[in-house]
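Same chain as my last thread, 372 residues:
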Amino acid sequence: MRSYLRFRSRKGWRNHFPPHDDYGFFGPGSVSWKVWGHPTSYVLGFARSVTIEHLDPNLAAAVVQSGGVKYRPHTRYGRTMHYFSLMAFGATYPTAKAADVLVKVHSKAIGNDPVTGDTYDANRPSSQLWIHMTAWHSILYCYEKFGPGALSSQEEEQYWAECARSAELQTIDPRTVPRSRAAVREYLENWRPHLAASEAAQDMVDFILPLDVALPPNLSRAGRIAVAPVVWMLSKGVAATYPKYIRKMFGVRQGPVMDALAVVLNKGYHALLYRSFTMKFFMMNLLAPGAMQVAAPAILGIPAKNPVTMTPREAQQKYGFAEPADAHPDFRARQHERVFGKGEKPSDEGLNESQQHFGALNAGDVRRDAAA
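reply #2:
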């Protein structure tokens, strides 16, 4: 940890991280690298998206069933950020492989939704699209609100095109992905009748929104006290992005004065992070070290070994992976039979396999208060 507090020049930091094998799915000059690589993405944008996601009752049911967020919050945060970093910045093979394994991980998240009375399945394309769009929308929204501001019309068009391209890593049909700001707004508006502020959703948001759950469990008391003002500021910043109807559903009471203060403080803080690689990498290493290792070469402009990009479909074909919607049908069928046919718990096979791609399931991260 201390090595990331040591001041280094850009050149010094570039020598600290190895290059990627290739430029992944976007590469230098892409709007995705510009927006996702900004410091507003990995706390504000991410926290906004994962809280809003819980308004989908199917997702909330899946999260409660898995228990991972409450029992291993720092690990869950780091693993999810690791995957998002692969999607945005990773080389083509490890990202395509991780996406393939993610289908097996999500095959565990199936069951009966107590709110809707229907079943839920994390691999369901509509569920995946909801997660995908809340993430890409939230990352851009926070970039605009707390970062450099609005993209040009040409950049925004490219951003949503890249959003659709990255959807090929999920079980989503890319043809269903909105490709403009107006289309995204329409998509989110059409979701409103399906949203539910269930007890499970509100409980998860109450748990996540203070943001201190993302801190490593071994962080000292002095360390927690030192970062507490920053965590408070970030939490208020996330709340400042919620529209009124979402605040009402979450039970978030934050007025316009606090909103304005949160915007000013977060704009200044993230401008400082943007200019200081030392501060930027310290915070990234604190919250999600695996994600930092993936994102840093792109953020620093380290040339890839092979300066090429591909689409996810091209990578899947090259490396022999099925399209996610068609991946692992036998395994998914066995999981379905275990849960719905035999009433058993799903297998952890995919979850265990994922550790080499997203990071370990750290037993030391278990929260005693959540496990009690």
